[in-house]
Write a structure and sequence with these properties.
The structure holds two protein chains of two kinds.
Chain A: H1 2-8, H2 19-36, H3 38-46, E1 64-65, H4 66-69, E2 81-84, E3 94-97, H5 99-115, E4 124-131, H6 140-147, E5 154-164, E6 167-170, H7 172-184, E7 189-193, H8 195-207, E8 219-222, H9 236-247, E9 254-260, E10 263-268, E11 275-276, E12 282-286, E13 299-305, E14 316-326, E15 339-345
Parallel strand pairs in A: 1-14, 4-5, 4-7, 7-8, 8-9
Antiparallel strand pairs in A: 2-3, 5-6, 9-10, 11-15, 12-13, 13-14, 14-15
Helix pairs in contact in A: 1-2, 2-3, 8-9
Chain B: E1 2-4, E2 7-9, H1 14-31, H2 36-51, H3 64-77, H4 80-91, E3 96-98, E4 108-114, E5 117-121, H5 129-139, E6 143-147, H6 155-166, E7 174-177, H7 184-192, E8 196-201, H8 203-212, E9 218-223, E10 226-231, H9 240-254, E11 262-267, H10 272-292, H11 298-318, E12 325-329, E13 332-336, E14 350-355, H12 361-367, E15 372-378, H13 381-393, E16 398-401, H14 419-422, E17 424-430
Parallel strand pairs in B: 5-6, 5-8, 6-7, 8-9, 10-11, 10-15, 11-14, 13-14, 15-16
Antiparallel strand pairs in B: 1-2, 1-7, 3-4, 4-17, 12-13
Helix pairs in contact in B: 2-6, 5-6, 9-10
Classes of the chains: A alpha/beta, B alpha/beta.
């Protein structure tokens, strides 16, 4: 995995001159996968991609939909840790990472967070708008949310989703109490987690007529997507206004992350709130009818490509998001790489069928 | 949302309401019996309001031509006349009678009575199935507990609430829960309150229900079926192209999601070359039909594409050489397969084409006996009767024209039985 090492060692996380290195690292990863994962090889052979020589561009790499990963467990070699997707619709995919992937991910995280000024040595208080770690929760979202609380030294950590006997429940009241305390202190506060809960918190504060002046340097970091709250999804302008109004946090101190357990690349929005594609990945937007690659500016299925991981064949995956890839060369932030806009999701996955086996009824339940 | 005693409640109140239901059921059973006339009247009111356009808002999520088709169907099928006819067809005209006197024996009164409590676990693949299944339970006088499918869009509940609005006495007989399928305790409790469980779904769903049901409860299964089309002497069939267009249109409109949908097109041949030439002829016809029925909604198109791509990859994982002959069109494909197994296609307009010479029909269908339902025919007129007989002898329930495989025929049974007759019991009382 020489080329992967080289790619993830790139100094500039948005270097646009590394496309050849990227393709090379992908081919290197592909070679490993077809030699170590029989199922992956079967798929590649079936799709007519038999060797790395058949790959002329990242778009040629066989695409594995996350939909399939939720139904089929792929393995391609030894691993150190396993993460699962959060299973919005009840099914999860399992992704395993080997040591080399973790090192590459760590290098990437340091470079990207440093680039965006999120790494800091100033101690702060964390409010995680997500899951409190619990042994029963293996989701990557819980893990990454927790990990981000190490980007600056933590004085304290509070979690909005508490594990109760009935599963996870949001506990807004304890967060309000904490805010009352933190407002009087000096340490900056960092919010981290699901945008949906953060937005609900803003709305609740607004309805109750509450507002806080949090210490300077406080930040809001958003990740994990809007999940089942798509219909509630606030437009970003409203979100920024409410953040200012209720917590006194300015727009430039709000950062959003995008990623998926099946594509653990850290996408961080720039000052213009665009998710530029870093050097570690490529994105192909595909035609919703034919899966052929689309040109920039067109809406389609989002195909995410990265040679980060060896232990699971996630080299080229397709999520059930719909997105647009925009030309980034004129973005005021200075990064030239294209940027991704997620515009929605495909219709619910549990398609209505009796022939396929009324998937929604007692799926997988053995009683 | 829960519908209980004519009122709606939050899903979180399920446990309390189920406990209350346990007390209510014996009271209702002992008190009175629901007359089918009440149900027929309520349904007829629903039909009238539907035709007047009172529910147009509710139906706005459907394409306008679909709404039109639904209205035409509702006009005929929900009429008092048709419902009376349905009662007579499905329960017979011997609802209550006294047996003839036979020397040496006493006479009895024979009567059809409701089973008691029916628990409906409905599938989400037909837009009005949950409400329809409930209406059948009501027409036979049963108390109905309905578990909505997770894919239900709120339409079922609204229609059911309308029925109660027309005839408030129905409220004692209707309990609708939006329980999740993973709520085993809730499902088990509902099963324990019931005399019978009417379950629509896959083999897996039915197996799970069998596991969850208490011993003694009657399980009324409406299981997963596989439809196919049988083509013989295509060039001698009257207007073969039109027949093929009908088949393509059936595939494109049902997207192969229904039990009656065509999964496999069988040709009366064992010659693979003949299959290939048929596939080449059929692909553009299918492509046209798919294009005509294409939805503009990008989320749905993308999902359909993802589902069929995922199915295709699953096929590669299973038997990598099996589907080597695939003719791909835009948003559809014709997959040539040399075996003759009746199986699920990748769906979403990806149809299998297989050889099935006439002398092999019995053997192939026997292997699929648990999943047989509909066969569509494309053949010369003089072969129709013979083939229909052959197929029904081999276990098929419906034999139709290829274009009508999923059509509704008034008076038809479902999976070989009349639903209403499965929802009643026969009692004998000595005279």
């Amino acid at each position: 995995m020489k080329l992967r090492r080289k790619l993830f060692a790139s100094k500039d996380p948005y270097d646009c001159t590394k496309s050849e290195l990227f393709l090379g690292a992908c081919k290197e990863n592909f070679t490993h996968l077809i030699n170590n994962c029989e199922d992956y090889k079967k798929i590649c052979d079936g799709l007519g991609i038999h060797s790395p020589d058949d790959i002329k561009s990242p778009a040629d790499i066989p695409v594995i939909p996350t939909m399939l990963m939720k139904q089929h467990d792929f393995r391609s070699g030894r691993y150190m840790i396993m993460a699962t997707s959060s299973g919005t619709s009840g099914k999860m995919s399992h992704v395993r990472f080997e040591f080399g992937a973790l090192i590459a991910a760590l290098k990437m995280s340091i470079k990207v967070t440093r680039y965006h000024g999120i790494m800091s040595f100033r101690p702060c208080r964390y409010i995680v708008m997500g899951y409190k770690p619990h042994r029963s929760n293996k989701t990557a979202v819980a893990k990454t949310a927790y990990l981000t609380t190490f980007l600056a030294p933590a004085i304290s950590r509070r979690f909005i989703l508490k594990h109760t006997s009935d599963g996870y429940k949001p506990d807004f009241d304890s967060i309000i109490k904490a805010l009352e305390k933190y407002e009087k202190g000096k340490a900056p506060v960092r919010f981290m987690g699901f945008p949906s809960y953060t937005f609900f918190l803003f709305r609740m504060l607004e309805e109750k007529g509450l507002s806080f002046k949090l210490p300077k340097g406080s930040k809001i970091m958003l990740g994990g997507g809007w999940k089942q709250f798509y219909q509630e999804a606030a437009d970003k302008e409203t979100f920024y206004k409410l953040a200012k109004k209720t917590l006194n946090i300015d727009e430039e101190n709000i950062t959003e992350f995008f990623g998926a357990v099946e594509h653990p690349i850290l996408y961080t929005d720039c000052s213009a709130h665009h998710f530029h594609v870093p050097v570690y990945s490529n994105i192909v937007i595909r035609d919703p009818d034919t899966l052929e690659p689309l040109e920039m500016g067109k809406t389609g299925l989002v195909n995410l490509i990265s040679p980060l991981c060896k232990a699971t064949p996630i080299l080229s995956i397709m999520t059930d998001d719909l997105g647009i890839l925009h030309d980034g060369s004129t973005c005021p932030c200075g990064v030239k790489s294209p940027y991704l806009e997620i515009v929605g999701r495909v219709a619910p996955e549990d398609i209505k069928t009796c022939a396929a086996g009324a998937a929604d009824i007692l799926q997988g339940v053995k009683v | 949302m829960i519908l209980f005693d004519g009122k709606t409640y939050e899903s979180s109140e399920q446990d309390r309401l189920l406990t209350e239901l346990e007390k209510r059921i014996p009271e209702i059973l002992a008190k009175k019996q629901l007359s089918p006339e009440v149900v027929i009247e309520a349904v007829a009111c629903l039909r009238e309001d539907l035709l007047k356009g009172r529910f147009d808002d509710l139906l706005s999520s459907f394409p306008s031509d679909v709404v039109e088709t639904y209205k035409i169907q509702a006009e005929a099928l929900l009429s008092e006349e048709h419902l009376h006819k349905k009662l007579e067809t499905e329960l017979g005209n011997t609802f209550e009678y006294v047996t003839d006197y036979i020397k040496g024996f006493k006479q009895i009164r024979v009567k059809k009575m409701p089973l008691g409590v029916l628990f409906h676990i409905s599938a989400g693949n037909m837009d009005f199935l949950p409400a329809y299944s409930l209406a059948e339970g009501l027409m036979t006088g049963n108390i109905n507990i309905l578990k909505l499918p997770s894919a239900d869009n709120g339409l079922s509940l609204k229609l059911i609430m309308q029925l109660i609005e027309y005839r408030p006495e129905l409220k004692d007989y209707i309990y609708v829960f939006d329980t999740s399928s993973s709520d085993i305790q809730g499902m088990r409790k509902m099963a324990e309150l019931s005399n019978a469980i009417s379950v629509w779904g896959s083999d897996m769903a039915i197996e799970a229900v069998r596991g969850l049901a208490p011993t003694g409860v009657k399980i009324i299964e409406w299981g997963q079926k596989l439809g196919f089309c049988y083509i013989t002497r295509l060039d001698e069939a009257e207007d073969a192209d039109k027949e093929l267009e009908g088949l393509a249109s059936h595939i494109a409109t049902t997207k192969q999601l229904l039990c009656s949908s065509c999964q496999v097109i069988y040709l009366d041949t064992s010659d693979i070359e003949e299959l290939k030439s048929f596939a080449g002829r059929f692909l553009p016809i299918l492509e046209n039909a798919v294009n005509r029925n294409k939805t503009e909604e990008i989320g749905i198109r993308a999902r359909d594409t993802l589902v069929s791509y995922t199915q295709r990859l699953k096929g590669l994982l299973g038997e990598e050489e099996k589907h080597e002959n695939v003719l791909r069109g835009r948003s559809c494909s014709v997959i040539i397969s040399a075996d003759n197994i009746l199986e699920l296609s990748p769906m979403m307009c990806n149809v299998l084409v297989k050889p099935l010479p006439r002398d092999k029909i019995g053997e192939v269908l026997y292997k699929s006996r648990y999943h047989l339902q509909t066969a569509g025919l494309i053949c010369p007129e003089e072969d129709r009767r013979h083939l229909a007989e052959l197929f029904t002898q081999c276990g098929l329930i419906r034999v139709t024209k290829a274009s009508d495989m999923s059509a509704y025929f008034p008076g038809e049974c479902h999976d070989g039985e009349y639903a209403l007759s499965r929802y009643v019991r026969i009692v004998n009382v000595e005279e």
